[in-house]
Structures are given as C-alpha cells and as structure tokens.
Amino acid sequence: MYQYLPLFLDTISFLFYQNECVKMINRRKQFEYLVSNLKDIPKENLNKEKNSVKRSPYHQRIHIESLFGMLGDPNGFSYFNGYYHLFHQWFPMKYSTNPNYFQQGWFHWKSRNLVDWIPVGEAMNNDTVFDKYGVYSGSAIPINNKLFLMYNGNSWTNTDTDDWHRVPSQLGAYMNENDNVAKLANPLIKGPISGYTGHFRDPKIFKKNGKYYSIIGAQTKAKTGTVLIYESQNLKLWNKVGEIKTNFEKNGYMWECSDYFELDNKGVVLFCPQGLKSKGNQFLNAFQACYAIGNKLDFRNLYFEGKKYEEIDSGFDFYAPQTMIAPDGRRILSAWMSIMNSNSPLIKYHYDGCLIFPRELSVQNDKLIQKPVSEITKLYTTDYKGKRTISKNQEIIAGLVNCRDIKFDISTKYNNAISIIDLFADRKNTNHLRLVLNRMKNRFIVQRGKAGLEFEDEFGNERSCKLKVENSVSIRIIQDISSAEIFINNGENVFTMRVFVPKDQYHIFVKNVNGEVNVKYQIHQLRKMSSE
Amino acid sequence: MYQYLPLFLDTISFLFYQNECVKMINRRKQFEYLVSNLKDIPKENLNKEKNSVKRSPYHQRIHIESLFGMLGDPNGFSYFNGYYHLFHQWFPMKYSTNPNYFQQGWFHWKSRNLVDWIPVGEAMNNDTVFDKYGVYSGSAIPINNKLFLMYNGNSWTNTDTDDWHRVPSQLGAYMNENDNVAKLANPLIKGPISGYTGHFRDPKIFKKNGKYYSIIGAQTKAKTGTVLIYESQNLKLWNKVGEIKTNFEKNGYMWECSDYFELDNKGVVLFCPQGLKSKGNQFLNAFQACYAIGNKLDFRNLYFEGKKYEEIDSGFDFYAPQTMIAPDGRRILSAWMSIMNSNSPLIKYHYDGCLIFPRELSVQNDKLIQKPVSEITKLYTTDYKGKRTISKNQEIIAGLVNCRDIKFDISTKYNNAISIIDLFADRKNTNHLRLVLNRMKNRFIVQRGKAGLEFEDEFGNERSCKLKVENSVSIRIIQDISSAEIFINNGENVFTMRVFVPKDQYHIFVKNVNGEVNVKYQIHQLRKMSSE
Question: Does the keyword Cytoplasm feature in the UniProt annotation (chains A, B) (predicted)?
C-alpha cells in the first residue's frame, strides 16, 4: 500500500507519478507530530479517538475492522503456534486533530478458526531509523518456533525541504510464541536499488524447493510497475533474481502488494497495478487488485506465461490481497475492503477500513474461484429457508439484522427473465442495494446508488460482469452491517463493497421482470465474531 | 419497429425468436377491438385518452411527442413542398381501457425550420387488407410534385388460432401538396419472400445513379438478422439485389430500421440488431441502434467493408434512427427517444414516446459525429454565461425551467481531476442526473439512478464511454422537461435519455474532486416550439 497522505499531498503525488515531476512540496506538515509509539501520545488525545469510534452505527460484526484510526492492507497472514495470524496496516491517529499525529505500524489479530479473531495489539511500530516514517506492508512465514516477518520500512530524507526522497528498506523481524516481535537490526535488502525508484515494497515471502523467495513490488526508473524476485538460503542474505517476465503488458506506474503461489497445478500472480484506465466495465475503481494465471513460474528465467490479467474482485471496495496456506492445505485470501484515498463516511467517526471475510481460493479453467471459508458455519444461528415462484416484488423475511449468509438459487424457463434481489432495503423498498440478473443481456449488475450514504459516486455506482446464462444461477451474499460480499455462481465472480444504510434497512426483496422465476433460498443469521 | 404487443405477448415472442418455437398463442385478444380509423371509436373513449394526457407534468417543449397513445419510430423523414416532413408510428389507443382498441398508423408533422413543428394529423391508417394489422415503418422521397411513401404493411393469418403467421408487404403511397395520402392498391413487394421469415420490414428508399434503392430489414430462415437491398427503375417493379455483405458478424435475430447513406466520402449503414447481449459497457439497453462506417457500398456485389459496428448513441433511450438530406445538403438524423417495451412512467397518463431533437451528422476518422441542428438558435431566449474556478459544489443559475441548450467547457491542469455536473437537481442537490468526467480513469459516466422516477433500472442506471483526456472537455446538453441529450467533445459521443423529475428540480450544480477545474459555460433558455 502506498503512503497515506492528506488528500492534497496525494493529489500532488499523483501528478508526480503520471507526469514525471510536476511539483513537489516539503513534508514538514505531514510529520510535524510524528510519534513512534502510542504511549507517546497524551491519553486524552487517544481517548478522543476511541470515543469517537463508539458513536458509529456502522460497526461490523464478522469482519476485522480498525479499533480506531485507519486500517490498511492485511499483512503477515499466516498460521503459527496453533493460531491463524493476521496483521494489518494501522494508522491509529490518522483522523486525529489538535494535533494530527503521524504513526504507522502493524496491528495484530489471531484466531483459532478464521472467524473468531482476538485483537492482540500493536505488533510493530515505526521506531527505527529504517521504518521511522512507516512500518509498511509485508508477510510472514513460520521458521522453527518463531514467525519470521518480512516487511518494508519507509524512510524519507530531507523532509524539511522540497527535495525529499524515499528510502525503502526490506526489513526482518521475529515474533515468538508469546506474540512478542523483535526487529532485526539491519535491513535484509537496502533500497532504493539500482534501476528502480524508491517505490519498492510489500515483500511476500514463501519457501519453494528448499529456498526462500520474496516477491517485491517495484517501480522502474521509467515509471512503470513491475515485481522483483529475491532469493535467500538463510533469510539473511538476499539476492535479486530479477524481474518477473509476463506475456501481458505491465500497465500502470507501480505494482503493489504482489503475491505468487501455486494452486491446482497452475501458477497464480497477484498484483495491484496503479494507474490503470477504465476499459469497458473493467478497472472502474480508483485502484485495482489483479491476478494472472498460467503454468507455474519458471524460477530459472522468471518467465510467467499467463496471457492476461483481470480483476480479482469486480466490486467497489477491494485492494491489497494477501494469501496464506492453512494447515489443511487450503489457500486462503485476505484483502482490504477499501480503495485508497476513499472518501469514506466512517472518517467522521475517526476510523475506517475493514478486511474481507477470509476466502478459500481455487483455480478452474484458468479462472480464480473464491468462496467464503467453510468455517463460516460456526457463526450460524437462526436459519430461514424457502421456495417461491416470483414475478412481482416479494419480501423474504430473514431476521432484523444485516448480518447473514444468504444463498439464492434462481431458475427460470424464460430466456429474458430479469431477476432482481434488493438487500439493505427499507420497508417500502425505495432504497436498497440492488442486484440484477439480466438474462436478456447476459449481465449481472450491482447498483449501490440507492444504498444509503453517497460514497465514491465519481467512480460510478454500478459494477457488472458477464453472466453465464444457464437454467439456474446461484448467488451467495455474505452480508454484514456495512458490507456485502457477493459470490456469483459459486465464486466465479465476486463483488465486494461497503454499504452504509440505517439500521432499519434490513429488508430483503425479490422480484422478476419478464415471466417468472423459481427462487430457492437459505439464509443464515450470523452471530458476532468472538474476540476472546 | 417490431409489433407492439402487451407485455405478455412480447415475452412469448422473444422466446419464439431466440429458441425457435417455444410456444405460440392465438392473437384473439390482441385484435378483439381492432379499428382502422379513430372515427370508428366513440368520442367518449377518445376524450378519455386526451384528458388523461393533459394531466402529465412531463410534457416536452422542444421535442415531438405523442398527442395521446404511443409514439414509435420516426417515418418518412423528408423535405418536400417547402417543408420538412416527419411522420411517426402512432398507436393512439395503445393505453385505452374498456375496451383496449388496436389501431396503428402514421402521424404527420411538418416544419419550415426543423425546430417548430406543426401537427398535421393522421397520414395513414391500417385500413387495407395489406396493412390491416399495422401501417408499419417506412420512408419517403419526393417524386415530382408528390412525396412517395414506401412502408411495411403488416397482416396476420389465422389470428384466431395458435397457428397464425405474419404477412409482410412493402407498400407504396403518394402524398400530394395538400398533405393528403393515397395508398397504391397493390404491394410493391409481396412477402414473406423465399429464404426469409415474416420479419421483413422498414423499407428505406433512396435514389442513386438514376436508380431507386430500398434497404429492408429481414430475418433469415436461420433466425439471424440481415438487410436486403432492392432496386427499381420506376418505383413500381422492385427486384431483389440481395443481402448486404459485411466484414463483421451479423449478430442478432433481426435487423430493424436499416438505413444506408454516403457522407464525407464514406458509406454509412445504420441498423437495429435485436437480441444482442451486453459486452463491457456496450449494448446495455434492451435493444440497440448501431452504425458501421466503411468505404462506399459496392452496389454490384453489395459488399460493405466496414470492419465493426457500434452504438449510435450511448444513452438509455435511443432506437429506430432515420435520416434525410436537407435542402442545403446536410444529413439530418431523427430517432425514437425510447426503447421498445419500456416500462415508461408516462404510460399512466395514457401516452408515451418522443423523437430526439434533430441532429446533423458527419463522419470523422470513421466515427459518426452528431450535433443538434444549428436551427436550435431560433429557440434561444435568455442567455447565461460565466467563467469560474470550481472545486466544491457550486450552483450555476440559469432560469427555472429545464429547457435549455447548455454548453460547458471544463479545463484543468490536474490529471486526476474528476468533474461532476448535476442537472435536474433539487435545491440541496440530493437528487439529480449526474454527469461525471473522470479523468483519472478516462471515463465519462451518466448516472440516472437518482434522477426522479425509477425507470428501467433492470438494464442498469449508468451509461459510460471512454473519455479522451485532453486539457479541455466540452459537454453540451439539450435539456427538455423530461429528457437530456448529452454531446461529449462536439458530438463524438452522445447520450440520450428520458428523465422524470418534479418541476422544482431545475437546478444545475458543478463540482470537482482532486484539484480544481476552470469551467466556462454558456446556457440558453429555449422557448417552446411553435405548432402553428
């Protein structure tokens, strides 16, 4: 994830990226109240943040969200010492005022079952010379009885002048079985490295054939995005193997949060190319998280033969994916349910950001398939089931809280039937998150325009994908107080988004245009995740 | 335009088209109250329709709309006897009840200047054996001191049984200088013709190299759309030349409302392919009106070498285009500002449908360019002009009525500036038709979701196109009480749509996200068109 600057600075940075250097300004203001530890902040100021967060009516029940301040990329997603571990970028004082403190580190959660998460606390703070201006993103791998963390430390030179520049270091740390982290004194890889700019970050570590590899996002001197692969025998000495070579053009000015893994006998590359323009109904969000599938990466020449890349998620809010392997071999995905620089309605409560509900990945026909992890059943409470034939608007009753695992199977003999599911709806179904299965046009559409608070309308309030026309379409929605994750046809397409509606908008409606449809549904109310 | 059936019958027809024969039902009910002339309908019933229409708050001021009942395709667009003539498909009793009469003919308007239109009255009724079930669409060409009309007469056999079939005839008629039409006794072309189904209609007549040609939409026995070209020396004997051959695949199950003309040294084919699936951000409406540009058609082998086709208009409501040549040589376009089977909010007032404001066409770089005809200046009344630098929401004051010719030039030095224009807005700008110039994603977006009455949401409430990123973007909007025609960058892209908002939603707002923009505007309030 890129640095989090106040909006004005971000704008300046964009100009800088895309047009070479338009204008730079000094960073004096940004770091005026730089602290390396929350302990250095007066309790009064901390309490102001915490109390503000309490006032939000939009708190999630089954998603990890920021305690206060801003949550960013998931980091160090791993299994170690009998627990799943999931860290995230944390900017606790991001929305503080009088003064606006700067602090950026990792916050730590752990879980026995992927659904109940215990907040452990801060794992790393920006307290060394190498990560003074931010403990940026990274990953983790268990090494003997410790968890090895590899991450990017951000530093700046000359922040008082307009001639600042970025010093990125790939750093290491070990977390012991008591969840205490000790940073290594010296960088594993010193940056910037020759041929690349200071945008060099987000190391994703993995082991293959007895060697350690790290895949790291980078920007070439020509201001194009790429990923570099490093290798190490001992986790101390790291050698650059080179840039990954792809069949497709490496669009964008920077690639962030890259990942590589092998699944179902294929190689999968994940990356977040910044600076993509929209194309048809693709790449509509400000920033994208993409994947490419091909034969397994050839580590001798770094040639990856996937022919194209596409978005991992077609919704409004999905970025910075990271994967891990569960003890039973499943490849599990986490991601940030947000887009950078988003003008979130939560900011006024002095917090923002949550992670997606963990998903199990598979590859079918060179497509990434995503499903909520099966452990979700541990959250099930009341069930609602039914079968109906539907044409006009009908309500489906399923509890009074927007926290559900909703499964619809919709079948019809009418080729041109257009089925509509409205979630987060008010009693009269005037406002809602609308899902449209348009068989006539082979198109699935999500409409957020009438779903509560206006939110990033300037990137459009509809998202859509091609809908395979079959007799029956399955739609599954993981619904939480302020989010929806929509899985079409068993996870062939996924749409993830935040939705901010009043609490009384908990209704669900179904209708059909052109003929009628048979609707089978199974809805599970979900309990709040346990934090103990 | 295809037959106008009650919704249920239409659904049946769709199934029939796309899946061969799923089910047919007899047409007894449809034609129970078939009349060939409004004179055969009790005055009381007619008055009910007329009075209902008066109650609508959505009447247009500068667009031809239906007096009562439903307006369909523009027909017979031509210049003759010192007037522009424009007919349209008319179903005056379409929304009548107790009983629901069936009558379908042409309604006639004429104009000296393309902007003030006189309603002449019914031009043709469904009163012969060949057009008993509908005077369908057609075209016109001046021949000496008369206007020759060539059109499709629709007939059915066995309407009382489930084994009905369609008999399409291409018919002729002459209109004299007193605007009286006399139909020819015998068909010019009897259908159905060998190798094609009963879907054979919408003859567009033109003269070239001393010969008359007619381009006619058709469906092959294999249920694919195409166009046929006929030729004649004398307007009486017509010979089939053959099917037009294209480089692109002839998608769709039927091509309606085809047209061919030459412009700026290129050949242009217009057609309305039915049955297209959506593709990215294209072909989103239920039905499409498309064009292809190539070298001029070779009339010997009917080979047209345009390589692709695209939509004429990227908006929500545009179908059945027809063109004519003005006395000064301009190629002028009319079209139906609607999509078939639309669930229009006007239906409850017992009328629906209007035509677009006439547009002048040109071809630049193999793209069709459209502009409102220059005669629009005759409608100008009060002008509002200004220049501003804008970031936050600002109102632009320009009168209290949504009937304007609005021109914006928006320039900025910020690459990522996202400019927003809200029209049809309420005082607080909560509801509006939103136009988004998203430079960051090279995307222009129109959002209708918050613009008054919900209307065909099931086909999506956003439309978009690629936005060429230049320092300055020009946007022109022809706004009427219940419609907007949006011309991007001098007519490179056009978005046409109906919008149904309360009268007090006449506000205009502009804002910008990321940096600021310079906005130059020139807004002309428009007088109502004169009908005398």
Answer: yes
Which residue of chain A is at minimal alpha-carbon distance from B445? Answer: A460
| B438 with A278: Cβ contact below 8 A | yes
The percentage of residues in chain B with a pLDDT greater than 70, rounded to a whole number, is 95
Q: Domain for residue B1, yes or no?
A: no
Q: How many residues does chain B have?
A: 532
Q: Is residue B532 part of a domain?
A: no
Domain that includes residue B472, residue range: 380-526
Chain A interface, best mutation among B14, B22, B419, B457, by max A CB count within 10 A:
B457
| Distance separating alpha carbons of residues B308 and B269, to the nearest angstrom | 11
> Token match 């103990």: residue?
A532
pLDDT at A15: 37
Largest CA distance in chain B: 69
Contact A217, A257 (CB under 8 A): yes
Report how far Cα B36 is from the mean position of its chain's Cα atoms.
25
CATH code for the domain of B504: 2.60.120.560
Interval A265-290: pLDDT, tens = 999 999 999 999 999 999 999 999 99
Nearest residue in chain A measured CA to CA from B437:
A458
**Distance in angstroms (rounded) separating the CA atoms of residues A86 and A414:** 46
- Is B337 in the same domain as B197? yes
Token pair recorded at residue B397:
């004051």
B19 and A420: CB-CB below 8 Å?
no
Cβ contacts of B343 on chain A, cutoff 8 Å? 513
- Indicate if the pLDDT at residue B7 is higher than 50: no
Does the residue A88 lie in any domain? yes
What's the pLDDT tens digit per position in A462-506? 999 999 877 799 999 999 999 999 999 999 999 999 999 999 999
Ramachandran quadrant class, A95 (left: phi over 0; alpha: psi -120 to 50; beta: rest): alpha
What is the arithmetic mean of pLDDT over A114-122?
98
Asked if the C-beta of A18 comes within 8 angstroms of chain B's C-beta atoms, the answer is yes
Structural contact between residues A80 and A140, judged by C-beta atoms closer than 8 angstroms: yes
What tokens were used for B143?
């021949």
ipTM of model over 0.85:
yes
User: What average pLDDT does the segment B518-523 reach?
Assistant: 98
- At A295-335, the pLDDT tens digits run 999 999 999 999 999 999 999 999 999 999 999 999 999 99
Q: What is the DSSP pairing of strand B394-395 with strand B404-411?
A: unpaired
End-to-end CA distance of chain B: 29
Q: Are residues B361 and B396 in the same domain?
A: no
| Nearest-CB residue to B438 (from A280, A443, A459) | A459
The answer to the question of residue B415 being in a domain is yes
**Chain centre distance of CA B50:** 24
